Structures are given as C-alpha cells and as structure tokens.
C-alpha cells in the first residue's frame, strides 16, 4: 500500500496518490480549507504531480466522492476502494490521484 502526498511549489495545492486499500488523509495548513478540486481520478490515472492525467479507466464518481469528503474541510480522510468509487475495471486494483487547492474560509 502506498500513499504519496506532496505540496506544490506555490504552496496552495496538495497532490495525492493512493492505492486500493489505503486510507488517504489530507490536511491543509492551519486556518485554511480545501476549496477547489483541480483533479480527481480513481481507476488508472497517470502522470506526475501536479500534472496528473486521466487513464482509460476512470470512475465517473471520482470528483463527487472526493469533493464530498474534503470540500470546505481543513482535514479529512478517505478510504480508497472500489466499494467507495465503483469498479472501473473488475478484477484490477484501482488507484486515486487528486489535486486539491486550499485557501481561506469564506
């Protein structure tokens, strides 16, 4: 199981990669909230952070699932699994790539 979380050079987004079975925990800096979902794909996304790309198997629910957990939160955790996202290619493990911007609460 692998979870990779990185912050971009500008300091206002986090990128994360997680495999099936992982629990992905993200935390914005103190006083900030996750407010703009830049990219989310569960299936077989590719690319390197922050330039993630959709693969040929992507769950349509990816953005909604991620946004429901992290939007307007300072920190949250998400279990990564086909039971949560749906199964874009049965029999193959999926992975989640996401990029989320954070800022001041409105």
Plain-language structure description:
This protein has two helices and eight strands; from the N terminus they run ββββββαβαβ. It has helices spanning 62-70, 82-85; strands spanning 3-7, 13-19, 23-27, 33-43, 46-48, 51-53, 75-79, 95-103. A four-stranded antiparallel β-sheet has the order 1-2-8-4. Strands 3-7 form a two-stranded antiparallel ribbon. Helices cover 12% and strands 45% of the residues. With 106 residues, the protein is mainly beta. Strand 5 and strand 6 form a beta hairpin. The longest helix is centred in the middle third of the chain and has 9 residues, at 62-70.
Please state the second-level CATH architecture: Sandwich
CATH class: Mainly Beta
Find the count of extended strands (DSSP E, 2+ residues). Answer: 8
CATH homology superfamily: Rhamnose-binding lectin domain (RBL)
Strand order, biggest sheet?
A: 1-2-8-4
List keywords for this structure.
Jelly Rolls; two-stranded antiparallel sheet; mainly beta; 4-stranded antiparallel sheet; 106 residues
Summarize the structure.
The protein is mainly beta and 106 residues long.
Layout of helices and strands, plus pairs?
Elements: E1 3-7, E2 13-19, E3 23-27, E4 33-43, E5 46-48, E6 51-53, H1 62-70, E7 75-79, H2 82-85, E8 95-103
Antiparallel strand pairs: 1-2, 2-8, 3-7, 4-8, 5-6
């Amino acid at each position: 199981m692998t979870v990779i979380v990185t912050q971009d050079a500008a300091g206002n987004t986090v990128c994360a990669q997680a495999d099936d079975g992982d629990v992905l925990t993200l935390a914005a800096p103190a006083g900030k909230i996750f407010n703009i979902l830049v990219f989310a794909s569960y299936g077989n996304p590719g690319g390197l952070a922050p330039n993630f790309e959709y693969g040929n198997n992507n769950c349509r629910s990816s953005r909604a699932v991620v946004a429901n957990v992290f939007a307007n939160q300072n920190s949250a955790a998400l279990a990564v699994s086909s039971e949560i996202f749906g199964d874009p290619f049965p029999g193959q493990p999926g992975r989640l790539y996401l990029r989320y911007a954070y800022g001041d609460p409105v």
